[in-house]
Amino acid sequence: MSAARSSTLPEAPQRSFARHSISVPLDLIVLRSGVPENLPGRCTDISEVGVGAVIAGEMAAGQQVAVELRLPNVGVPVRARALVRYQSRLRCGLEFVGLPAEQKEMIRYWIYRSAAKPLDFKDSRENPGHEERVGWAAGEAPELGIKPEPEHRRKPRVHIGRRALYILIAFVLALAALGWWEWQRSWNELENRTPIGESLRVSSETMEKRITTKVEPVYPEAARIAGTEGRVELGATIGADGSVERLWRISGWPILAQSAMEAVRSWKFEPYLSGGKAVEVESRVVVEFRLK
Asked: Domain residues for 238?
């Protein structure tokens, strides 16, 4: 009577290699009837020759797949072909096939930089879940020829809080706005100081009493953030009909003067009479900006 043939897979040669704990997302692509299917998962350990993972899908031992994952603090992803060595429920072991030398070095360098002690795994089909501490101590990487940087030579990192960052951005914007207002002021002065006929000069106190329409200026947000306040004095030419025809800055912050000029242009005055006839006059207008 002959014994029945076993249906189990033949034993794979026993292998031993160091793997290191990690927890990062992993994308796995398998071909099913010639159609690629993406299976999401999570990498649980990694070495130069393979990874352990939890995959949301069924696979068969010996099946070839494509793997992609990103090591923490490493900009280039690990992309490789791999063979499914085993799968137990959702946990599986994947062995890299033809992994390029530069990606191997990248994995080895990440293992060194992570300062984690590796785990020694036997073939996972034979002894799944068994872990034994072996390999480098933290900070050692003899085959890479890299020595850890001494603590006293490491440059301290500067951390900027969100509120401080907002204040810094606002300050930079305020400075930029001040520069723009200064340019605008220079242009307006150049434009408005074109010589014209002589006008009758009237005191600011007299013309202030003749205001019929007064629009309050808007406090510039950039000036408010920068804490800019003060008195602005403008020169003005007021037409015979009481409208403001020309304005120029005499004194005061340019950013405040620009806002004052935009408001004063809308002011209306009672026409000034000379010899019983409305005439054009020149005067001064004073506007105060105060932060409350």
From this structure: 163-289
Pairing of strands 132-133, 200-201: unpaired
Distance of alpha carbon 250 from its chain centroid, rounded? Answer: 43
Paired strand residues for 287: 232
Check residues 272 and 138 and name the one with the higher pLDDT: 272
Here the tokens at position 272 are 């000034």
- Inter-CA distances, 291 with 64, 221, 250, 263, 286, Å: 71, 11, 22, 18, 17
Q: Evaluate if pTM is beyond 0.85.
A: no
3-state SS assignment for residue 104: helix
Q: Are residues 84 and 196 in the same domain?
A: no
Residues 217-237 have pLDDT tens digits of 999 988 888 888 999 999 999
What tens digit of pLDDT does each residue of 157-201 get? Answer: 656 677 777 677 776 666 666 665 665 555 555 445 444 445 789
* 105 domain residue, yes or no: yes
- Cα→Cα distances 8→1, 4, 122, 130, 186, Å: 21, 12, 19, 22, 90
